[in-house]
Amino acid sequence: MRRTRSPEERSFYEGEALRGGWSVRQLERQIGSQFYTRTLMSKDKRAMLEKGVVANPGDTMKPEEAIKDPYVLEFLDLKDEYSESDLEDALIHRLEDFLLELGGDFTFVGRQRRLRIGDSWFRVDLLFFHRRLRCLVIIDLKLTELNHADVGQMHMYCNYAKEHWTLPGENPPVGLILCARTNEAIARYALDGLPNKVLAAEYHTVLPDEKLLAEELAKTRREWEAQHPVLPDGSVRLRD
User: How far apart, in Å, do the first and last CA atoms of the chain sit?
Assistant: First the structure.
């Protein structure tokens, strides 16, 4: 734990290691991959900064807070050129490491789950269940940049899963398109306003640049603090 830079970061790793039952090797991997900073850099950055990065058991969680961006898959040892099936096989082969990267609330359900719509058969790449969200998470792997067709396909999968795979008491499924690159404009116009919750995140096969992550986090903090000034009594004014 000597590599942590702040009491908050140390507390985060201690809590997550205890909650997830991490081994020493797993803890070292999480610190080396900047898991703390990447969690802060999740889709809903400001919400994470307001709530605090360490989740309490009673906290409600939104899908945006459960999904990191990017995901670091350096443990796969992929060749320079690989197919989607190669990527999927590697993730299954290193499922324990993939679950560690996804987060402690993810549980594996299956791969290549078949679904029939009309006269056509489809398969979802990976299927997980998220305990705190209490819903299925469908993961679709893409080697290219996110496009609107990927979003439409995932929306169809979520509709089917909601009708046929969701059990009583569970929340509607969440779709995660894990792609080589996201396009902010396409993501905004293709994902916003959908009846189903569909998210997109990048995956990287090398460890992140620590300096760049720190700079991006500092920028987010400055933006948040500018919008939430400190009052004379030391409290923070939260704006809608």
Answer: 37
Could you give the count of Cα atoms lying within 13 Å of 41 in the half-sphere of its Cβ?
20
Query: Within 13 Å of residue 22, how many CA atoms lie on the same side as its CB?
Result: 22
| Cα 126 from Cα 90, distance rounded (Å) | 12
Answering whether pTM is above 0.90, one says no
Spatial CB neighbours of 11, under 8 Å, sequence gap ≥ 6? 54
Contact (CB, 8 A) for 145 and 79: no
List of domains in the chain: 1-60+209-240 (no CATH), 67-208 (3.40.1350.10)
Q: What are the pLDDT digits (tens) for 172-182?
A: 999 999 999 99
